[in-house]
Amino acid sequence: MIDFKMIPPGAVILHHTKRRAFVPWAIRLWTKGWANHASLYMGSGRHEIIEATWPRVRRTTLETYYNSDSAFKIYFKANLSVLDLAQIKGYAYGSIGKRYDLQGLFSFVFKWPANEHQNFCSELVAEAFNSVGITTSFETSDKTSPADLERYMVSQEGKERGWAKIMDN
């Protein structure tokens, strides 16, 4: 059971869809990772997250996923300043309504260029943190998969820069 009150604003949520579905399975296969989706926890009484999912970047609640067939790993950047958090949240809220970058999603397989005016899930998370100079991946944001986020956050460099897993289910 996840205690939503324990999740700090600015946490990165990695999702693993348990049901058999092609897209989540393919993302995990192509990226060699556990997660097939990433979102940014915004907090508030509604447990709000911002995510890039087909067809647009949207605001929803973590309960939407918790009541479904997803497992989570949640990471947080220690010593995140109030100003940095405000800018990260501002970037994410400012992205609501942007089109989903389907071409960028397939860049993992086909090495296509991403569309700079659109986002896929982990790209949105990486760019929100990059907007304040915080590293989330060994890759550029337009090539960052959910697996890349986790690989960086559990790496020695990621740990030294303050990333830590705070919960999973």
Task: Itemize the secondary structure elements and their pairings.
Elements: E1 12-17, H1 22-31, E2 37-43, E3 48-53, E4 56-61, H2 62-66, E5 70-77, H3 82-95, H4 102-105, H5 107-110, H6 121-130, H7 146-154, H8 156-160, E6 163-168
Antiparallel strand pairs: 1-2, 1-5, 2-3, 3-4, 5-6
Helix pairs in contact: 3-6
Tell me what you see in this structure.
- This protein has 169 residues and is of the alpha+beta class.
- It has eight helices and six strands, in the order E-H-E-E-E-H-E-H-H-H-H-H-H-E.
- A six-stranded antiparallel beta sheet has the order 4-3-2-1-5-6.
- A hairpin with a 2-residue loop joins strand 3 and strand 4 (56-61).
- The mean pLDDT is 88.
How many DSSP-defined strands?
A: 6
Number of helices: 8
**Major beta sheet, specifics?**
6 strands, antiparallel
Helix content: 25-40%
Counted up, domains total 1
- CATH superfamily, please? endopeptidase domain like (from Nostoc punctiforme)
In CATH, the architecture is Alpha-Beta Complex
| Strand order of the biggest β-sheet | 4-3-2-1-5-6
* Secondary-structure content class: alpha+beta
Written as H for each helix and E for each strand, in order along the chain, the element string is EHEEEHEHHHHHHE
Distance between the termini: 7 Å
Low-confidence runs of at least 5 consecutive residues: none
Strand composition percent: 15-25%
Q: Could you name the CATH topology?
A: endopeptidase fold (from Nostoc punctiforme)
Radius of gyration: 14 Å
Level-1 CATH class name: Alpha Beta
Assembly classification: single chain
General form = globular
